[in-house]
User: What shape does this take?
Amino acid sequence: MAAKPKVWYWPVRSHTDLVFEPAVFARMLDEFDVTILSDNRTPSPDEVPGAIAPFDAVVTGWGTHPFTEAGLEAAANLKIIAHSAGSPKAVVTQALVDQYLVPRGMTMFSAAEAIAYNVAESAVGMLIMTSRRWPDFIESIRETGVWRPEGVPITARYLQGSTVGIVAASKVGREVIRLLQPWDVTILVYDPYLSAEQAEALGAEKVELNDLFARSDHVSVHAPTTGETAHMIGAEQLRLLRDGAALVNTSRGIVIDQNALYQEARTGRIMVCLDVTDPEPIEQDNPLRTLRNVYFTPHVSGAGAYGYFKIGELTLRALEDFFAGRPVRGAVDLSRYDTLA
Assistant: This one.
């Protein structure tokens, strides 16, 4: 019988319990020769170089230390890094990708797809909640007893029959598009890395950013943080939003110029829901906090048992597929590493 691939598992128990169902984790322990530190800690950067040489794979996750040059230099047998979390940039920098992963033909897996399920569900829910202004009705009934508060419309263009703009066809953006397919909606997407044919295959129409904001009844933002996306949505785009539009951001706060957002939102003509802000948490004295048409959630759109357990499931599948010589679902395109969140 061939020796089992040697896997060094870095996450601590709390991470394991969060993302691996017990049966899935037990299967990983059975199928691979897995090493876990006995004192429930993640290996320190100083101890990795002296211990990593025998391992064929490393599993990382939330809370694990990032790789160092010394660690990868000593990783003579390392063939795959399986990141049981979102962005792999938390554990491997662009410089190390260029210096080690690409020349050695190594594979980097990310479980970002699993987190996308939770974020996309949140985004669609926020589009509905924000356009329908449910928090205003809930607060009014609970706090003042007013059944239908003055100034809060009871009808408008909600999700059904609307045009929805998706900013960035990221994993989350694509999942939002998939979730919207059963609805009677027209979907527009802005993503400079997406072709018109790819957009059509997703069930959307590719448009430019300003066109998206001008034509959409509601907009959901799913762009990563890169040099290209900082404040990519500013006063020019926000002015194009239709009256009554719902703007939802579950990606990164820096994508929207928050000063410009305040100036537009303070008119009261649009509704906003922010799961992410810049900075985060948003400052106590930030004027956006004072606007009743701006809703905040504390960066929780990615949370949820369904997506979290999918992380472990997809991580195990990545290891199984890799060592069986099959394509790895979730393998990171290292040639576009700089565009990742």
User: Anything to note?
Assistant: The radius of gyration is 22 Å. The domain at 6-110+305-339 is CATH 3.40.50.720 (Rossmann fold). The first helix runs from residue 13 to 19. The first strand starts at residue 6 and ends at 9.
